[in-house]
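can u do me a favor
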């Protein structure tokens, strides 16, 4: 296992594998925020403290094997080039925050890329587990296994009344952020997201874009996650999220059925127009590519398009990002050069399905 493997392999196992309700739920993620007792938070700690935390956390998991995730490898952020960090962000293996504030940051990645332990991001430790489809409980089980192991070697900052202490007050308590990535073109096309998002917010959940807070919902992909971490157990948080997601799945399927009944030929036309663009374009920007890929995935799910894997959305949404395009090119590309290479890559990938 090497850095090159993490950078050059576009599709992580959680992207290519099938999971429950994977026609709508692309992935489930669990993240646990933890801090080391008697050390300042990353925003104010010293270089010496930051380095000691990296060493102690890595020492606690070095050589260990957890469930089926394989071996673990340490990546130190200040040893990586900006483009390399960007690729890891695009693969959802590290956060934009860790990539942008990485002087004392590091990440421990599992061989199958389902587990990422970010060190010295907003908190000292952030354990992230990613699974295909709707598998929040399964992701939490693995995250807790790793968390329990680290806690045997590292003394966490914990208060008996409040729970785990975190840099941001909104994470205090369980320190748990659970989220699902959902493809919701039916609800977007039937103009229902405007009413759904406020309703979800009232339930203590939040709707974000593909890369989390502050990001855009490219390609009709939305991230649904909990906001409340204090006063609820981990089980309650996961069950509440799963309940809302189950309702969203039902509404998305209902919207797709309604479109098929009332606007079938228009929807089929939209799908095949996007398929035509992707199959023949010579220049394409990232937003247009994301929109067309969403239409293509919808067409595959609804049976309009045969013999193309539905995982193509997961794969090409990563492959066509600026970092990956430049990684494959072997160096920086101007925006117009990226648009040309993006079009070429999409055409080549679609041809492989023929």
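np, heres the sequence
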């Amino acid at each position: 296992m090497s850095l090159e493997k993490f950078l050059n392999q576009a599709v992580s196992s959680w992207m290519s594998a099938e999971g429950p309700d994977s026609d709508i739920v692309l992935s489930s993620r669990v993240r646990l925020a933890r801090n080391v007792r008697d050390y300042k938070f990353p925003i104010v700690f010293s270089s010496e403290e930051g380095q000691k935390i990296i060493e102690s956390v890595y020492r606690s998991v070095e050589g260990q094997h957890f469930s089926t995730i394989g071996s673990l490898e340490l990546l130190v952020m200040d040893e990586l080039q900006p483009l390399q960090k960007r690729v890891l962000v695009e693969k959802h293996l590290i956060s934009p925050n860790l990539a942008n504030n990485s002087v004392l940051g590091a990440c421990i990645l599992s061989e199958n890329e389902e587990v990422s332990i970010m060190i010295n991001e907003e908190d000292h430790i952030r354990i992230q587990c990613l699974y295909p489809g709707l598998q929040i409980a399964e992701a939490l089980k693995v995250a807790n296994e790793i968390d329990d192991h680290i806690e045997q070697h590292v003394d966490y900052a914990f208060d008996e009344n409040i729970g785990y202490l975190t840099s941001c007050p909104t994470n205090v308590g369980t320190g748990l952020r659970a989220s699902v990535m959902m493809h919701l073109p039916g609800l977007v096309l039937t103009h229902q997201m405007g009413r759904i998002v406020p309703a979800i917010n009232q339930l203590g959940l939040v709707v974000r874009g593909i890369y989390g807070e502050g990001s855009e919902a490219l390609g009709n992909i939305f991230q649904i996650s909990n906001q409340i971490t204090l006063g609820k157990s981990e089980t309650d948080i996961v069950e509440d999220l799963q309940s809302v997601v189950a309702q969203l799945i039902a509404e998305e399927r209902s919207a797709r059925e309604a479109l098929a009944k009332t606007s079938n030929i228009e929807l089929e036309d939209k799908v095949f127009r996007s398929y035509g663009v992707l199959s023949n374009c010579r220049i394409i920007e990232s937003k247009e590519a994301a929109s067309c890929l969403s239409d293509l995935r919808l067409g595959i799910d609804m049976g309009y398009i045969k013999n193309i894997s539905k995982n193509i959305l997961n794969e090409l949404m990563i492959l066509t990002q600026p970092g990956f395009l430049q990684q494959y090119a072997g160096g920086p590309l101007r925006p117009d050069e990226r648009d040309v290479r993006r079009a070429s890559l999409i055409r080549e990938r679609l041809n492989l399905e023929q």
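Residues 131 and 138 are 8 Å apart (CA to CA). hope that helps!!
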